[in-house]
């Protein structure tokens, strides 16, 4: 879905007039409001090996920040931009129960529904809602069959005399990137239209003083969202001025700190000042990922205007590596270490021990790093992509394999590889499948998947195939080094997510040549790693068989393919004529 231009002016007029009709605040009184926020927790309820982040330290920090704000007369809200699910095996095995019960103890007031809330069946999400003492919000997710909203669209809070409405919004990309089976019955409508609709309903009923959009849509500098659905910048720009006051976001895993207008700080470091984005009078904030930071925004509200007084991203025990005089290395926190809350540790430890017993099992080893970082698997072919796909080829006896890079969630470090490590790489429990296609069918399939843009979850990782992609078609296709034969059949391995249309891939699950092994992708990878360890990274180098042409290269190719133009024939004149016209033309 697209963020549509305004169709009429009447709704915008109503939205702008209603605050004047519904004024609840007192003239010339200053109200104070503090927003504490996180996003994209992705199962990281427990600190990592270096003692970074985790809900126990977050609880200590949140308590301090809340009490500090309240001591200054501020009302406080704690908000999450969504994606509590998927990423850490301990959490995934337990359907994120430790995360949600931990968020209850922290005191979260509301969470936007993220796309990863739909990785598992809706029955799991319904169970999670029962565990949560805070609402899961989304105003733009509808039930296809009834045409009604499927989740609570907003929540309203009274804080120190200020009435604050929080509207949840979910990226429309969810239908493309979530588990297709989980979202088959959903309709996710245009966020702009649904925000205007929600604001009109709120102002006609509860009459809020401040309206916050709690979104899981992503922040893209200057609205340049590429192949992703439009995000927070586009939302703020598309709404009539004054519709909302603040966007608390998630999804793109960014520390939204601006270097200058429409340009965010790259490689933000803990402790640096942070100036949020502002578009069309709306502040936009986001706090990176995994609970690495807690965002704190201190606002004042006076005579109908919300002003930002101070904003900071507070690191949660983030550390950096330093070399000691003896050559050894240590990890030091960027700022003062935050102690872990005892009550949170008491809550989470049984969950952790329960999962560890199943996960701390050695599977194999490697002599180097298998690269699965987000900024690699969504841009280039990687050795980890090769490793996963070769395992799937072996399980299906396929000629080649393909998968979306977004299905690879982290790297495999050098050394011992545990079952936990593999589940972190492939946490979605997809099944390994195959399909037999003719060369002609395969060419049409590849024209779609090989041209999915970089920086998107659908960017394709390939094994045992080479091709040239130009943005709309493919050429020079070879399977195992042999040119594609249009009439020959080929078996392709992939996963059930991509096979059913996930990440915008063509659906192949109804094809006559489709076969589902019933094997989970992580189990297939485990079997390969255990039988081929110690793994040598040099054996899985992706090579340069997948070529994506730049615009300049396409122009050069097209020019080279143009038929040669015939040179104009030189006219021939008798020398006597030339001697008469140009006397010197025949001189020697």
What does this 3D model show about the protein?
It is a single chain. The chain is an alpha/beta fold. The radius of gyration is 28 Å and the shape is globular. It starts with 9 loop residues before the first helix and ends in a 7-residue tail after the last helix. The model is unreliable at 1-10 and 14-21 (pLDDT under 50). α2 (55-71) packs parallel to α4. The protein is built from 18 helices and 29 strands. 46% of the residues are buried. The protein has a six-stranded mixed β-sheet with strand order 4-3-2-1-15-16, covered by helices on one side. The chain has a six-stranded mixed β-sheet with strand order 6-7-9-10-14-13, with helices on one face. 29% of the residues lie in helices and 26% in strands. The longest helix is centred in the middle third of the chain and has 18 residues, at 342-359.
Taken as a percent bin, the fraction of beta residues is 25-35%
Number of strands: 29
Shape estimate: globular
- Low-confidence sequence ranges: 1-10, 14-21
Helix content: 25-40%
Mean pLDDT: 92
Number of helices: 18
